Amino acid sequence: MDNPEVVYKLSIDNLSAQRRDITIALLDSFGVEAIHEAEHSLYLFHEDVDFLMRAQSHISDRLDGIGVEDFKLINLPNQNWNQVWESSFKPIVIPGFCAIKATFHKAEFDTPLIVTIDPEMAFGTGHHETTYQMIENMKSMDFTETTVLDFGCGTGLLAIVAEMLGATSVDAIDNDPQAIDCAKKCLQLNSATRIKLFTGELDLLKAYRYDFILANINRNVLIDCAYQMSTMLKDRGVVLLSGILEGDETTILTTFEQVGFRHLSTQQKGGWLCIQLQLHQSSLANDQYMSAHYFEK
Question: Does the N terminus or the C terminus of the chain have fewer Cβ atoms within 10 A?
Answer without folding.
Answer: C
